[in-house]
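Lay summary

Proteins are chains of building blocks that fold into shapes. Our project writes down both the chain and a compact code for its shape. Here are two examples, one after the other.
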Amino acid sequence: MRRLAILLAVAACLHAQSPAPAAGREADELATRMLQLLESTAVAMPGLIEASAPVKQSAQATYSTLQRTPRSPAVIWRFISQMKAYVALADSMPRPEQFPPTAEQQFAELREDVQRMQQYFETVLRGEQQDEQQKEADPNDLRHYAAVNSALGAPGTMPRVVFLGDETTEVWRLNEYFTGRDFVNRGIAGQTTQQMLGRFRQDVLALKPKVVVILAGSADVAAGIDAKQTEDNLATMSDLAKAAGMKTILASVLPVNSYHADQDPKFDMTRTHPPANIAAINRWMEGYCANPAAGCSYLNYHPVVVDTSGMMQTGFSDDGLVPNSKALRAMSPLVLDAVGRALTGLSDAAPDTKKRRLLPGLTK
């Protein structure tokens, strides 16, 4: 018993010295621990399990939401309030004469964890305020590529191609997948077509490419933006490129899946990115580019990334949304073919061997 008491005392000391969680992962671990303490402390007091059942149920539901939106101030505050309600309820109930020291220690830890979560909430809230101020000052994140654009210089003898998009484009290391080419990455994770349109002049037109490949619309679907607005934004970018003498390739919005949702509810991508909405935008793009007057071509990635259920292949994404290196390797020949047609003026017919010889440099 003496040794256990010493260990508990040391653990309490170390816990008290630990800082407030500074990252989402630490906060997630803290929230998980708080739920564990709710379970373990309830059994130490007669009647507390039954009395706290509604609070426990609400806290567990909020925790699930917190998994999907770890930096939502409203969700964090709700979780804190529910844990405070549990502590207040426990304090209002009579304790048995022989109250276990371990339970006393766990209640103390829970109170400290509530304070740590409160500090995390305040940190997130300050960050949200700073983010909002930054978004108000630069809603399209023009600063993201401002410096590298200035250092890029004019195109050389190799025709330049700009890839504009969201996280799928941003994670695509173009210099590794397409060697010996002037392929410029201008993807920003989470951006909508409206934000891309807002930086189109700086991040595309000013770089003077021959071709722009636009992979956009996923964030629009997730944000519930009206499909007509997404279509108008894509059409406007295509028109701007055409007026500048550039070719536009509109790439299909990639499919998603929910195959990893059993690991974490936040990976339920078919809920946040309804496949029907994705399909509607892709049908519009295909029809829009079929009109020669539009001056664009449609690049459909789906044949190489979907499974028999029409979802993103399970091995092609680690979260059900963003394609991994395996998927990007499968997509690379398609984009090379599309860029080759745009640069050489070939038709949208099936690619031939001559065109493939014009486009070396695909990493195996």
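And here is the second example, written the same way.
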Amino acid sequence: MKNMTNKKTLFGFTLLELLVVISIIGILVAMGAVAFTTAQKRGRDSKRRGDIQAIQKAYEQYFADNTMYASTCSTMADGYMPGGTPTDPQGNQSYILNCDSDQYCICAELEDADGGNAGAPASLSTVCDYAGAPKSHYCLSNLQ
């Protein structure tokens, strides 16, 4: 004869197994959030570099047409930058634009503190400070 017992067979997970799975999911979510934030910062810094290069191209086009740079930055932007001078992707800071008829300097502060090619400009002079440390700004100056 068969041994008849009243044992119930339970199918499911123990509390320990659930805690381990929840912990693993939490770690993966945290790692994903950090990677996403870093990718966003890199994307914004890339846009800043692209904007600065576009402004530089507009300045050089102005120079090619007029054999001098614009005496004020806004004069140049009116005709050579469709849509006007670009703005920072976050909107909480603006690009540093300095120009006169002989030279110009354009800088943007990057979120990556060491990702630029220049230090913070000491003043709003037309000379870019490429020697500053840390290299927190991306700057371009005249090519002519």
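What can we say about the second shape? The first strand starts at residue 96 and ends at 99.
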